[in-house]
Design a protein that fits this description.
This protein has helices spanning 12-23, 40-43, 50-53, 60-83, 101-115, 126-132, 154-167, 215-218, 238-241, 282-295, 341-356, 362-365; strands spanning 4-8, 27-31, 47-48, 89-90, 94-98, 122-125, 142-146, 150-152, 171-173, 180-183, 189-191, 197-199, 202-205, 224-235, 249-252, 255-259, 264-272, 306-315, 321-324, 331-335. By secondary structure, it is of the alpha+beta class. 46% of the residues are buried. This is glycine oxidase.
């Protein structure tokens, strides 16, 4: 049965879910408080790096991230075809750097368990490391090279997702302010700040850092909090030379650096708790500048040309909320993806759409259950 689905939130997760639901024939309406992709999604660095960003071991979250990475080649091609737009999608591979012998042992341990999950990573040292990334600091002792990891340009990706949604008939309503749920037990009705009423058969909550507003409505704890991530970018000579000065995504224990086709080198992310404040601070950017020159010494003489911030929806246990509300057959969640919304967009879209269609087992969703934090 085809449903009229309301998707609350027009970030990368909301748009991805809306596209997948629309592609399957459902009548979908996206309800966005400001503009699509205006918060964490458009501000993200766009890294698709589950191996580099999950360093502890193969938990349920890592497995979901890895599933999403493997969906990306076909997913991004489909979004490009459906939208008629293009965006950068680069299989650059990654380097996770180490400065000391103790750090090298940690890389070796990660290499071993990640190989069991399809990684072909190798540890590079000496001349092999300098050939791979010539401008790395001489203080870098070694790096774990993971060829499978990629990145994309988030603003263009989100724009393409939005256009793909529109092209298949998804209705998008923006600048609604806070949207409240007026009825969800005997029907489904949501109202915008200006009083517009939206009705449907199902509701998919994708409102990111604002999902906690619905805790009282549904009678469950929704511990999703905004974490401000501050990012900066440096100019490179890629536009003139056609050669990337930085060839891989480069990670350290302090953050990451990734070179884009628009000739920028993006450095992030300095994180702090600042409520819903998206202003950029000198202190936040200085944190980035203090460590990035230890990775690439040439940055010491350069000043970022662009600085920005986004709000990342962090949950209490670090896992997103994905799945149905047990007390209702019309309320579903797909929110709280923290810094992995871009990476997780295809896997979440398919999982959320399967939830709406009743195709997912309780066991599959156990680790991400929206009600796991109690009433």
């Amino acid at each position: 049965m085809k449903e009229r689905v309301l998707v609350l939130g027009g970030g990368v997760i909301g748009l991805s879910c809306a596209y997948e639901l629309g592609r399957r024939g459902h009548a979908v309406t996206v309800l966005e408080r400001v503009v699509c992709g205006g918060q964490a999604s458009g501000a993200a660095a766009g890294m698709l790096a589950p191996y580099s960003e999950n360093t502890e071991g193969p938990d349920d979250f890592f497995r979901l991230c890895l599933e999403s990475l493997r969906l990306y080649p076909d997913w991004q091609a489909e979004i490009k075809r459906s939208s008629g737009l293009t965006f950068e999608y680069t299989n650059s591979g990654s380097l996770y750097v180490a400065y000391h012998d103790a750090d090298l042992l940690g890389l070796q341990g990660r290499q071993l368990w990640q190989r069991q999950f399809g990684a072909s990573g190798v540890i590079l040292e000496g001349e092999a490391l300098r050939r791979a990334e010539p401008l790395l600091s001489a203080k870098v002792k070694a790096a774990l090279h993971t060829p499978e990891e990629s990145h994309l340009y988030s603003p263009h990706y989100v724009r393409a997702l939005e256009q793909a949604c529109r092209n298949i008939g998804v209705r998008i309503e923006e600048r609604l302010g806070r949207v409240t749920v007026e009825e969800w037990r005997d029907g489904l009705a949501l109202r915008s700040a200006e009083g517009r009423l939206f009705e449907g058969d199902g509701l998919l909550v994708c409102s990111g850092a604002w999902a906690g507003e619905l805790a009282e409505t549904f009678g469950i704890r929704v511990p999703v909090y905004p974490i401000r991530g501050q990012i900066c970018a440096y100019e490179t000579d890629y536009a003139e030379t056609g050669v990337r000065s930085v060839r891989h995504m480069v990670f350290s224990s302090q953050g990451y650096l990734v070179a884009k086709e628009n000739a920028s080198l993006v450095c992030g992310a300095s994180e702090d708790v600042a409520g819903f404040d998206t202003s950029v601070t000198d202190r936040g950017i200085d944190r980035l500048r203090k460590w990035n020159k230890a990775v690439f010494p040439f940055l010491e003489e350069r000043t970022p040309f662009h600085r920005w911030a986004g709000l990342r929806p962090s949950t209490q246990d670090g896992y997103p909320l994905i799945g149905p509300l047990s007390r209702s057959d019309r309320i579903f969640f797909a929110t709280g993806h923290y810094r992995n919304g871009i990476l997780l967009s295809p896997a979440t879209a398919k999982l959320a759409a399967d939830c709406v269609e009743g195709k997912v087992s309780t066991e599959r969703l156990r680790a991400f259950a929206p009600e796991r934090f109690g009433a």
